[in-house]
Request: fold
Amino acid sequence: MNHSVTEPSRLQKWCAGILVVGYALVTIMPLAWIIATGFKSPGDAIAYPPKLIYEPTLEGYVNLFTTRSRATPETLAQLGPPETWYDAIVRQYDMVISGPSRYGERFVNSVIIGFGSTFLSIFLGTLAAYAFSRFKVPLKDDLMFFILSTRMMPPIAVAIPIFLMFRQLGLSDTHLGMILLYTAVNLSLSVWLLKGFIDEIPVEYEEAALIDGYTRFQAFYKVVLPQATTGIASTAIFCLIFAWNEYAFAVLLTSGTAQTAPPFIPTIIGVGKDWPAVAAGATLFLVPVMVFTILLRKHLLRGITFGAVRK
Amino acid sequence: MADVVLRGVSKAFGATVAVDAMDLSVPDGAFVVLLGPTGAGKTTTLRLIAGLERPDSGEISIGGRSVVSDTPAERNVAMVFQQYSLYPHLTVRQNLAFPLQSPLLRTPPDVIERRIREVAEVLRIAHKLDNKATALSGGEMQRVSIGRALVRKPQVFLMDEPLSSLDAKLRADLRIELKRIQADLGATVIYVTHDQIEAMTMATHVGVLDAGRLVQFGTPRAIYEAPVSLTVAQRLGQPRINTLPATLFGQAPAGAAFIGLRPEHIRQDAADGREARVTRVEHLGDQTRLHLVVDGHPVVTLADPHTPLLPGATLRIAPNDPLFFAADGTRIA
Reply:
């Protein structure tokens, strides 16, 4: 093949470099701000002009994970010196720790619901996409369009019917209910994305596997799935990000047992304008999606499926 | 190994009839080469036998048992695909082991290793066993794909142009090697090719397909010497058979429209022949081709490598064992 691309000039390289670095700074700014705020004291967090240099403290994190109550000087004197470092932080404000906060539970709920619905979306989506890609399904195009059409309105538009339906079915404020809901919303995306990826895997591989003595399902499992990992990984990331960040349904449908972190984090702010605790909650909340994406990163590289079938 | 019988098998894709009421009997241990132009239904025939396509009508049996409702796995056939179809996520070794590890065969690991060694040796890919299937050249991929069939002992081998992208030397070697393996195993092979040398040297039987029909089936020799039609006659022979008006050299049987002259069936020293003018002399090394013009019709024949003839020279030619065809291409004499 003849590439007629010329090497960019020094100036072009510099301009491109500056552009990329500038864009990266703009993107990373809010993230950096949130992480930084998590380590500020409440006073530093609302200081004006904003403080770039400050003394880091874990106050925000302590406040995030605990509930505290104000104690009279007499009570404090009776208690004696603080036993732990987090006790010590709280004592500065004449407070004592009265128990753990609900952030931990909410976080675990987010993990269960986020990953549960992602798994289910991928599992069902892969099977459906494979069937749509490989078999003669009656009304295939209409069905695919119908699946896509479920995504054409904002999901929250059907909030009221879903709210009533969930109440009738006893799914309100349950993990199962939220997993089903997020799966239903994500499924159209996952079927469409995965069908695109599976369409690109030449059918010859399965035919070879069928001849080699495998059943249709074994061929799917042993030959198609390993080559679809790129598509599955990227689709899973999309599904997880949606389910993880979803706020409106979570506010509407969960309160006690199945509440996820997004509706909980703003409630931390309470009366004390505790921005560091909110920032700490948001920072920790970012971690699972980041870890998940980094773990799947190597599967996002394309190019494994191409090359062993002659076109 | 087993025999393969197709009876009245038809297969259409939409409006296109790929295979049209095909009857084909492949005896046990035969090496059948299917020849035909592109779109004649050769590959579809293989896919029907393999079970990758379901016939619209007709009966297919392998080893005397009807297999029409069987899955490809149940038919126990091995196939070499024209497009290689190596599993890209596996190494060469894993590709070769794949059929042996199937639930159908469940071969013990030491046997798998031995089979892979043997096959890799024959196909000269032993040094590539630990490569990814995608990190091979086209010729190597093709050999691995042949190997994936050869590791097994199936009822029938189906091969779709397995040697097409190899270089001349390797192709010649593997032709002999495949023929030897087939003879040793007593294997039944159905083999699709465009290459007439493969057809002539490897086949015990040649089947000529045209427009989804089996036009002629017989030994390579019979197909070459006694073709049933002009299209069959044109499939074999290099250079191609010369097709000329039937009466160009005088007498022709009643109803004949064309006379077919193989290049070697032309006498060049015929005092009673027609005058021919030399237009080109091609030295191909193993043969020397003489391009002639007879009464405005081009004719190709063969000459002695040291022929003194030069373009512009004239000679007198006459047919020797000519074939005669009717206007619709059927052979009449």
Notes: The first helix of chain A runs from residue 10 to 38.
